[in-house]
Amino acid sequence: MTGWLCPLCGGMLRPNGNSLCCENRHTFDRGKSGYVNLLLVNEKRSKIPGDNKLMVNARREFLDKGYYAPLAEEFSKEAAEAMAGVPGPAVLDAGCGEGYYTAYLKAALEKAGGLPQIFAVDISKFAADKCARRCKGVECAAASVFRLPMADASCDLVTCLFAPYAGEEYRRVLKPDGVFIMVIPGENHLWELKEAIYDQPYRNEVKGYELEGFDFLNKRAVDRRILLDNPADIRSLFQMTPYYYKSGVDTDARLEALERLETQVSFEILTYRKK
């Protein structure tokens, strides 16, 4: 079995050659990488949901240069500690992107000896495909975090890095006392980038950490400065942010003029337990 449920009828999907099938013969083909597209047409808000191929490739190239490696290391360490003593934990990376953090998560859990079963979903089929190529042994699917193709109480750990918060679904798929880890930008994240491209830069709003249905356990802060010494990396960084979708002609012009940027990166790793 794969752990995925049929998005049409809710039945368990089982391997059948290079496809996944349920008892009602609904069939979903795997891509060459092994990922499966479980996003239904009526769940798509656009022709190409999520990040397109260009954006996914830009993020992969940026992350592979190690700029955010300290975050990946601290995040995976927190996850391994949370799963200590859980044999063969079932783990879901919700909004996995191209799999950069998923790979760190897998390595940390395997190093801890937990023999994890890891699932990863992203609404972008291009991201899910890249994740499957990077993370062999991880079950990857294109799906919405607001309609996860997984059974109730099936996961020991759910992680969410910079992805939409779908609290009701995360609580549904978590086992009793399951752990939820969320990563969000800190107050001063990318402050110097904002100063360079905006007339009136603003700091990120830091809200309270309470989440319905969860007990707050722990916070880890990751703060450092990074130096980007070429325009390509600066643009790739910008394309990874929500600001990219709101940019105009003036913003693009200022961005193109940047040849070098030193900026603060700030993250908060928040850990919860399901009530």
Secondary structure layout:
Blueprint: E1 14-16, E2 19-21, E3 27-29, E4 36-37, H1 53-63, H2 69-82, E5 90-94, H3 100-111, E6 117-122, H4 125-134, E7 139-142, E8 155-161, H5 167-173, E9 174-185, H6 191-197, E10 214-228, H7 231-239, H8 249-257, E11 261-274
Descriptive report:
The protein is 29% helix and 27% strand. By secondary structure, it is of the alpha/beta class. The protein folds into 2 domains: 30 residues, no CATH class; 244 residues, Rossmann fold (3-Layer(aba) Sandwich). It has an 8-stranded mixed β-sheet with strand order 4-7-6-5-8-9-11-10, with helices on both faces. The chain has a 3-stranded antiparallel β-sheet with strand order 1-2-3, with no helix packed on it. Strand 2 and strand 3 form a beta hairpin.
Task: Output the keywords.
alpha/beta; Rossmann fold; 8-stranded mixed beta sheet; about 30% helix
Quick summary:
It is built from eight helices and eleven strands. It has 275 residues and is of the alpha/beta class. It folds into two domains: 1-30, no CATH class; 31-274, Rossmann fold.
